[in-house]
Design goal:
mainly alpha, 0% strand, 74% helix, 100 residues
Length: 100
């Protein structure tokens, strides 16, 4: 659970920076990068966000969702369905980038 919760905790820290300086470069990039954008962008919206930043954030979120879903499907197909064994990070990395 730690690798999943660390980006969320980091996003909340970035959100506090975004509230103090919503137009700063750290706040802008954190609101565009998919793992932190749902939290940081919500903190920036009350201060006024250009439409292109909001659109770019949504586009990257959609692409990130599709990419991670594809990657998870590939890991599941290779590791669980074909081999049926429990996975760790090293084997999942191999399964994700294995040629089929």
């Amino acid at each position: 659970m730690m690798p999943i919760t660390l980006p969320v905790i980091f996003s909340f820290l970035l959100m506090s920076v975004a509230i103090q300086d919503p137009g700063g470069s750290l706040a802008i990039w954190a609101s565009i990068i998919p793992f932190s954008s749902p939290i940081v962008m919500m903190a920036r919206i009350p201060f006024g966000v250009p439409w292109w930043q909001l659109g770019l954030s949504m586009l990257f979120l959609i692409l990130g969702f599709l990419g991670t879903t594809w990657l998870a499907g590939k890991i599941y197909r290779t590791g669980i369905l074909m081999y049926g064994k429990k996975a760790n990070w090293k084997t999942m990395w191999k399964w994700a980038f294995r040629k089929q």
